[in-house]
Amino acid sequence: NIIAKSWSSNVRLDGKTAIVTGANTGIGKETAKDLAKRGHFFLTFLLLDLLKHSEPARVINLTSMAHSMGRIHFDDLNSEKSYHPVKAYVQSKLANILFTRELARKLEGTGVTVCAVDPGIVHTEVTRHMKSPLQMFVKAFSFLIRTPAEGAYTTLYCALTPDLRSGGYYRNCTLATCSRAASDDRTARNLWVVSCHLLGIRWR
């Protein structure tokens, strides 16, 4: 189902803490640039103590259905040897799900729930960076593209719904099945170790 479900909730956010990572629309160019440099892995690391002390808390990592085309290139994680925007994008979205799985495992029993969300194809300003043929394609299939409000449904669902499955991948306001590569716990652990090494940090 490519069309987002209409979803609403009377649940209030009072006393709850949720962080949403993986998006860059609406947060300002400088903030987006800084997050791109430091990474959402590092941002979550910096907020870890606050999240634990604020439980129940949520970490929501935005990903994409495109993760199914991704592969983790451990020999070239930063695309320094060979760069292609699509290859880098799908790898990053796969990495978001693997990070979600491993973080959920490490935070089990802390009151912090972690999930990965695919908001669907959303009409945002990201299309302004696309080449003309892609812009024409997006325009032609605009009836399948969600508005920003529709794209936020699943994120809000995961922020507000009780008894969410930690480590889960959500799409259209429901638990979904991710790719085999995104379900590989060994790759998730290896990526975690490499990420800590690259950032020079040690998770508590």
Describe the structure.
The chain is α/β, with parallel strands linked by helices and 204 residues long. It has a single domain (17-199), classed as 3-Layer(aba) Sandwich (Rossmann fold). Helix content is 41%, strand content 12%. The chain contains six helices and five strands, in the order βαβαβαααββα. The protein has a five-stranded mixed β-sheet, sandwiched between helices. The protein is globular. The model is unreliable at 1-7 and 23-37 (pLDDT under 50). Keywords: Oxidoreductase. InterPro entries: NAD(P)-bd_dom_sf (IPR036291), SDR_fam (IPR002347). Belongs to the short-chain dehydrogenases/reductases (SDR) family. This is Retinol dehydrogenase 11. GO terms for molecular function: oxidoreductase activity.
